[in-house]
Sequence to fold (471 residues):
Amino acid sequence: MAKIGLEVHVHITSLKTKLFCICPSHYAGKEPNSVVCPVCLGLPGAIPVPNKKAIEEAIKVSLALNMQISDKVVFVRKHYFYPDMAKNYQISQYDGPGTAPIAKNGFMKLRNGKTIRIRRINIEEDPAKIVYPTGSLLTSKYVWVDYNRSGIGMLEIVTEPDIEDPKEAREFLEKLRSILEHLGTCDCTIEGSMRVDVNVSVPGGERVEVKNIGSIKGVEEALKYEIARQEALRSQGLPVKRETRHWDDARKVTLPSRYKEEETDYRYFPDPDLPPITVTENWIKSIASSLPELPDARIRRFVVQYGLSEYDATVLVMDKGLADFYEDVLKIYYKPKEVANLLINDYLRWINEMNIRPSESKAKPEYIASLLKMMEEGVITIKIVKEILSEVVKGSDPRKLVEERGLTALRDQEFLVEIIKQVFAQEPDAVEKARRDPKVINYLVGQVMRRTGKRADPYLVNQLVRKMLGG
Ligand code: ADP
Ligand code: MG
Ligand code: ZN
Fold:
């Protein structure tokens, strides 16, 4: 069995400004190096001023993850020399003599009741972004540095190595993402807002760290690959050495990183520009009292209020955008189970197929309501619903699609009676049985549906078959 620990870096996207300066923290689409100032460029003499809201966001996340919150916020300098780091140190937090991270010793529960311990949460600034204009890290002849990202407020959330397989890692990250989105701390649909380092070892081997994976799917794939690689080495009696690797998302492999980072001495010490900030009980209490509904509570509410199974409720709530969308549909079409079924079984499949998050779908709640309403009224069949759903996800109004393409269900009684007569003629045994056993009626209805390409209104066919059996 593998041992897995995660280091999750998330941008605090709810911040309007960077962690220690007043540059805007949203830089998507901005000219490179246009959202910068002396502080986030690390110019000598520039003094950082902590963003109070960043500390509040860290406390919110700490409360949601059942952490012990430190009574002081201490920022340290973590030294390393790299082109993404203007000052040659990153302002971060550290668990050492005289310093502590904002929070320690929390936990999260997985679906099967298992507890994943969370070691610590750090508040830290993001380094600048390095761009490789003529290839990759390994092949580019030179690099560009974009400081727009430098100084963005981030949280680093570090687990104990309690995770045992890639699926569990995915579940942990999906739940963490849902918690962060419910808190409003991180809108993880923003490109690059969640990055993960995974640490993984197998029995008899050292731990390998795979750095900087940009998606939850990537984490799962990298872990699968890495566990297989390590187990193959062990089964040949070869050692797994302690090393840092990176995930090549195009080739779906982990590769050794060029630099040995194990030996780095970061020379942590408290930043003299940033005196410790006291975290009072009252401050924590007032933040705790303003927390929104979190995923576990929302799942319980979905079960009680809407009569969903725990499984269905969990699938919906594990993505805040999907859960919000679900409740928006219910506001106009209150059939909780029908809506949940369509979203979970069919809608989500298209979302995954298109490789987008549910909140990026162009479907409006009205569209899902119309689809189900048209089916309920016998205007269209479930087959048509499934057929046009992918276009609805892309933003087409289902009522228009049905009208333009003439997809309405067959309700021509004369025509249907003809087909039922044909079926009866071919299935005399079934007709005989159906008079005694209602289950066989469904079989006959199914035969009629098949002959109409599943376009007939099943309710009407059912009525007609019953009438013709009786008569
Ligand atoms: P570092 O700061 O050098 O990366 P840490 O001790 O802080 O080292 O651990 C980083 C991560 O490695 C944590 O998430 C931890 O759970 C994980 N980890 C520690 N030991 C192991 C192990 N034997 N196998 C897999 N992961 C591990
Ligand atoms: Mg590490
Ligand atoms: Zn700045």
Q: What stands out?
A: The chain has a mean pLDDT of 93.
